[in-house]
Specification:
The complex is a heterodimer of chains A (316) and B (227). Chain A has 316 residues and is mainly alpha-helical. Chain A has two domains: 204 residues, no CATH class; 100 residues, 2-Layer Sandwich (Alpha-Beta Plaits). Chain A has twelve helices and five strands. Chain A is elongated and about 105 Å long. In chain B, a hairpin with a 2-residue loop joins strand 4 and strand 5. A six-stranded mixed sheet of chain B has the order 6-7-8-3-9-10, with helices on both faces. Chain B starts with a strand and ends with a strand. Chain B is 33% helix and 26% strand. Chain B is an alpha/beta fold and 227 residues long. The model of chain B has no long low-confidence stretch (mean pLDDT 88). The longest helix of chain B is centred in the C-terminal third of the chain and has 16 residues. In chain B, helix 3 packs across helix 4. Classes of the chains: A mainly alpha (316), B alpha/beta (227). The interface between A and B is medium-sized, with 25 and 29 residues.
């Protein structure tokens, strides 16, 4: 019906006007809403980044088996085959003594005294087998095999299970869980605060305009014609806050990747976070706007329901 | 058109009721004046008709609609059918004369084109042509009253209720307003007005309903003056 559309347009127009007129009042509401949405955003990205970092580290976990100097080629090949037959083993690679020495020299390029010491003795470094696993957490099978006396005899030193990397993984997993939970708690708290502030803002707006609203009611305006603009106003709070939140995040990533230029910040891969954000940009924007609008609409529905009562019998 | 059957209204059970078992019947196109001193119950009567208040007991039927069976969400529709001129005008101070009258049409979804067409004509009827862009505070009491009337009639209601339309006006302006109301009545609208202005009551040879202490004291057609 044409007149429904006209009324809708008028309601939206009134809501936008109100939004602009209440600019100062709305700033508090939008600030809190922006913080809420930004927490959501950060949690999601931090979660994704941590997960990626863990995956990266895990793919590098390997088991190093150091071989005695006197091992024969036959023994080595047999050992390699046996290890490969173990379920969890992805691959086995062999590093000769010479290769080990070269790697060592490369890793310690800056250390002159070490270089001197190395060149004065025979190559002390053992040859080794590097075993990559499918599931780095399941090392028992490998361990059992490598601890067998017959196998142990072929080993010069203790097997290295990339111990410190596992520690790093555990640390990150803990951090991820913490961030996820803290994120959820933070979002809920701020969402509630957002709702309360919007609620309050609308209440004030209703109070300021109560004369006009009363006249509208007496002239026969429907409940939705009167409530509508307030809901539209809240939708705008949600949308604008979402846009600000995404813009801020965007800005932060742009700044951090140029100034920091370090793509890793210890355990975090900021570069990845940046790419994740860019790749999922539209989805992120959509979720932010959706969440912002949801919070806004719910708050204003409750506020207008409570403060614009339309009992025909009373003069409220 | 308007029927009240033994209608009572009590705001507070401890005090005397505002209206007690009032029965009143008004035919379409009538022009009825309701008189009574302040507190006699005139405003209460009007509030019952606009559903601002619910009766404690009794039946109210207006324009064929039984108020007892009226649901809350049907009330806006009811209020659109009855034009009301409030005692305190209830104009929107931040809007011009034109916008104030247009407001009544906006609420029911009338297009801007039609509003531009209708509002000037109504302002002409009430004699406010040329003052469309003034704000209420720039107008005299009588002019504001006429804006209120224009807004009340712009939707062409079948019933027009005017609460003390000549309230604070000097005689000349008071009569201007009355003449407008008579013109509207002439075009076919049932007019109900309340007043405590004796002069007007006496000069208009119309039906006069007198309310005293919540009761109808008298109901005279073509009443000349109150005895």
């Amino acid at each position: 019906m044409p007149h429904r559309w006209i009324s809708f347009r008028r309601i939206v127009g009134a809501g936008c006007q109100s939004f602009v007129r209440n600019a100062w009042l709305s700033i508090a509401a939008m600030a809190v809403m922006t913080i809420t949405l930004t927490i959501v955003l950060f949690s999601v990205i931090a979660n994704a980044t941590f997960s990626k970092t863990i995956a990266d580290i895990r793919s590098h976990i390997d088991v190093s088996v150091y071989l005695v100097d006197g091992i024969t080629e036959q023994q080595r090949t047999d050992l390699t085959k046996q290890i490969q037959s173990i379920d969890n083993v992805k691959s086995v690679s062999y590093t000769t003594k010479e290769q080990a020495l070269t790697q060592y020299k490369q890793q310690n390029q800056g250390n002159v005294s070490l270089q001197l010491a190395i060149s004065e003795t025979d190559n002390p470094l053992p040859a080794s087998l590097h075993i990559k696993l499918y599931d780095p957490d399941r090392i028992n099978d490998i361990k059992k095999f490598l601890d067998k006396p017959s196998v142990k005899a072929l080993q010069s030193d203790e097997t290295s299970y990339s111990g410190d990397q596992k520690v790093a993984i555990d640390k990150i997993t803990k951090a991820t869980t913490f961030i996820r939970e803290a994120g959820i708690v933070g979002v809920i708290i701020f969402a509630i605060i957002s709702m309360l502030i919007i609620f309050n803002t609308i209440q004030m707006a209703i109070f300021n305009r109560r004369e006009e609203l009363n006249i509208m009611r007496l002239l026969g305006a429907t409940k939705w014609y009167i409530r509508g603009p307030f809901i539209v106003e809240s939708v705008l709070y949600g949308v604008v806050s979402a846009l600000i939140s995404v813009a801020v995040c965007n800005g932060l990533f742009a700044v951090s990747s140029t100034t920091l230029n370090a793509n890793s910040l210890g355990l975090l891969d900021i570069g990845y976070a940046n790419r994740y954000f860019a790749a999922h940009f539209w989805a992120i924007l959509g979720v932010q706007i959706g969440l912002g609008v949801f919070i806004g609409v719910v708050s204003s529905l409750i506020a207008t329901q409570r403060y614009l009562r339309f009992k025909g019998g009373s003069t409220s | 058109m308007i029927l009240l059957d033994r209608v009572s209204k009590s705001y507070n059970p401890k005090t005397a009721p505002a209206l007690e078992r009032i029965s009143l019947h008004i035919e379409p196109k009538e022009f009825v004046i309701i008189v009574g001193s302040s507190g006699a119950g005139k405003s209460t009567l009007l509030k019952l008709l606009t559903r601002e208040e619910k009766p404690t007991s009794g039946k109210i039927i207006v324009g064929g609609i039984d108020y007892e069976h009226l649901k809350d969400k049907q009330i806006p529709m009811l209020r659109r059918k009855i034009g009301v001129v409030f005692q305190d005008f209830k104009l929107l101070p931040g809007r011009t004369v034109f916008e104030n009258v247009a407001f009544a049409l906006e609420i029911i979804g009338v297009s801007n084109r039609e509003i531009k067409h209708t509002v000037p004509r109504v302002l002409d009827i009430v004699g406010l042509k040329g003052k469309e862009d003034r704000y209420p505070k720039e107008l005299s009491g009588g002019e504001r009253q006429r804006v209120a009337i224009a807004r009340a009639i712009v939707r062409q209601p079948k019933i027009l209720i005017a609460d003390e339309p000549t309230g604070n006006l000097d005689p000349k302006h008071a009569w201007d307003v009355i003449r407008v109301l008579e013109k509207i009545n002439h075009y076919g609208t049932t007019v109900l007005l309340t007043t405590h202005n004796q002069e007007i009551v006496n000069k208009l040879k119309r039906r006069v309903v007198t309310i005293e202490g919540g009761h109808i004291a008298s109901d005279k057609a073509n009443a000349g003056y109150k005895s």
